[in-house]
Amino acid sequence: MTVPLTQTNPVGGMKRWAAGGDAIMKNSPSLIVVAAALCLAAVGFVGAQVLVVPTEIQLPGTQPGQVSNLETPDKCDNCHGGYNRAVEPAFNWRGGMMANAGRDPIFCFIRIDACD
After folding, report:
1. Could you list the residue range(s) of the whole structural domain that residue 96 is in?
2. Total domain count for the chain?
3. What is the C-alpha separation between 65 and 27, in angstroms, rounded?
């Protein structure tokens, strides 16, 4: 003889049955409300922890907000330029990738995002 695993409740709800015929779970509004409240509390607890950024994960070096104004590259020419354009760092740097990073839109976005 086969025992059905679900059976219609006379009130209109469904009951789940074990193989022996005992009811496992009934539709209960209070159980659903408690489960929903626990889920919302867990999501709120995890979300509150994400907003706090500990200082031990900050990278070493200058942090956002520590630099007020940057010097122009001409300031470096006093020591690193004006003697031999083939080997001096000032002249060669101006045509390099690091000197032109300020014109790169991705670099600008990452810099703005890091300062926020």
Report:
1. 66-115
2. 1
3. 56
